Amino acid sequence: MYGTRFAIDAMRRGGGGGAIVNVSSISALWHGRTKGGGTPAYDSAKAGVIRFTTGLAWLREKEHIRVNCFAPGWIATDEVRSYWETLTPTQRLERGAPARLLDLEEVADAVARLARDESLFGRVLVWWSDGAPGLVTWGDRGYGELEAIAL
User: Fold this and answer.
1) What are the chain's domains?
2) Can you tell me the distance from the alpha carbon of 93 to that of 83, in angstroms, rounded to the nearest whole number?
3) Residue 137: DSSP 8-state
């Protein structure tokens, strides 16, 4: 929240306009955790990032500042990859882990798309590691439907 707030302040001082991409997690949505347990505090915080982002959609009209959010699945960072690689495909399925990890280039492309696309503001891009990226339909109360998006 502070990073977003400081970015908005800097954009205002610079004459207005710009793009902010917040990062949440797939675990904040129904697309995320399918097994009990997990980390409820993390999931709740990431859900807050999504709502914070969508609540700032009004900035586009008033100040030409677009705020969007990326909610990825499992990303192939060293720590995640080292855990994921110890699991067999059966264990991955049992534990709700994806069959593949998002690579860092895919993550960068998704963030860049949200930052560049002038038509997107207050939107959430969801990408479960096994699937394709999709935008949460504007006004969807449960994030049940995703619009296809090309990166």
Assistant:
1) 2-148 (3.40.50.720)
2) 14
3) P
Quick one: tokens of 34? 């399918």
Q: Which residues pair with 134 in a beta bridge?
A: 126, 148
Tell me the C-alpha distance between 45 and 25, whole Å.
9
pLDDT bucket at 13, cuts 50 / 70 / 90: very high
Residues, the chain, total? 151
Phi first, then psi, for residue 53 (nearest 5°) are: -65, -50
Collapse the DSSP code of 18 into the 3-class scheme (helix H, G, I; strand E, B; otherwise coil) and give the result.
strand
Structure tokens at 144: 């049940």
Write out the catalytic residue numbers.
42
- Residue 122's nearest CA partner among 104, 140, 95 is 140
**Residue type at 85 in one-letter notation:** E
Residue 4: closest CA among 19, 16, 17, 15: 19
How many helices and strands in the chain, by DSSP H and E?
Answer: 6, 5
pTM above 0.90, yes or no: no
Q: In sequence order, what are the residues at sequence separation of 6 or more whose Cβ sits closer than 8 angstroms to the Cβ of residue 111?
A: 21, 23, 70
